[in-house]
Amino acid sequence: MAVVDLISHLDRSVSPAHSTFHSAARLRDAGFVEVPFSSWGSRLPGKGFVRDAGLLLAWNGDRGPFRIVGAHTDSPTLRVKPLPDTGGHGWKQIAVEVYGGILNNSWLDRDLAVAGRLILEDGSTVLVDTVDPVARIPQLAVHLDREVNDRGLVLDRQIHLSPVWGLGTSTAGSFLGLVAERADVPASKIRAHDLVMYDVTPARLLGDGTLLASGRLDNQVSCWAATSAIIETASVAGDPTKTFVIALFDHEEVGSESTHGAAGPQLERLLRALHADDESSFRDRCARSFCVSADNAHSVHPNYPERHEPGHRPIANAGPVIKSNANQRYATTAETAAFFEGACRTANVPVQWFVSRNTMPCGSTIGPIASTRLGIPTVDVGVAQLSMHSAREMCGALDPDLLMRALVAVGAS
Q1: C-alpha count within 13 angstroms, C-beta hemisphere, residue 43
Q2: Which residues in 17-65 belong to E strands, given as ranges?
Q3: Is there a contact between 232 and 408 (Cβ–Cβ < 8 Å)?
Q4: Same domain, yes or no, for 233 and 362?
Q5: Contact 200/113 with Cβ under 8 angstroms?
Q6: Is residue 276's pLDDT more than 80?
Q7: Distance between CA atoms of 289 and 281, rounded to whole angstroms?
Q8: Are residues 362 and 310 both part of a single domain?
Q9: Does 189 lie in the same domain as 148?
Q10: Are strands 393-396 and 384-386 parallel, antiparallel or unpaired?
Q11: Residues 253 and 370 both lie in one domain
Q12: What residue spans of 265-398 are helical by DSSP H?
């Protein structure tokens, strides 16, 4: 079942680097050839991918218009600061920095593990995942905050979100020593790190099996669907008449402005490497191409229906959601929406629409960034979910597979 494969992906993708590591393994198993990030000058294989930290680009084919699916590997979280040892009053704590627009309270009273990358003194990178929980952010007891349920919980991100990981006096290097032990590397060899916290609760189906709860649904669902779609299209015999590309970017949650983000140069570099002809023909090829920006959408919330635009209230397990915004927070146009709807009809996949209330501005995605940079018509779509940007989110168990089928149809359209 597709949802079983997705659950495996979610549980393994505990950091952006782990996400691309797992997706790369799936691509290799499907016959894709990994190309070193520094070797784009040579001729690229017909099916291949490049990967660096939280960025992965993969392609199938080298002719015809591009069919691109963009997603992002990062999620709102707590990142470990360069010098993580802090604490007081007999408690050892971890200094963390808020990454992206987290729901602060969702990180309280959860068993937290640490995952990410360690950079060693020889320049090599080691992936680390403690797997077991190492810390927790304890909430203040109601006996010490009697009005919290009436007044609402107010958290200072600097003061109240530091996880506790032990007792005693916090000394320099002690927490990284624990992480180094779990990674089986000498702590003295670590020169820098890129570490995030995550809730160790595994992805799980809920109730009658129609709902899926997990951390990082935004946007690992889209990463899984994009990777599954390119593997599916590559399994079809014969030379592809279009070039299917997936771009799994990092840093979307903080604006995409990085070498590994959608505003960076890497996707354009790949497209130019796949196109050996002159600049004029490249521009023409891009104009005939199509991009899907795949990022989760807001399902109507049963407890807060008034927060949604009355005529555009997506629901779980009713198919991918086309996201539209007149102020260009999404890249969807009438033409790109029609193209995507046509692909969904071909795949027998239902489609929904999301538009924000006029009194409630929406967020944005990689869609406007990618379409502006490349001049490629783009549609913003995603799976409907609840609890977006929480440490643990929820979506329909059927929707990820429906999104994947729609992306396969886009690749053939």
Answers
A1: 4
A2: 33-34, 47-52, 55-60
A3: yes
A4: yes
A5: yes
A6: no
A7: 12
A8: yes
A9: yes
A10: antiparallel
A11: yes
A12: 266-274, 279-287, 334-346, 367-374
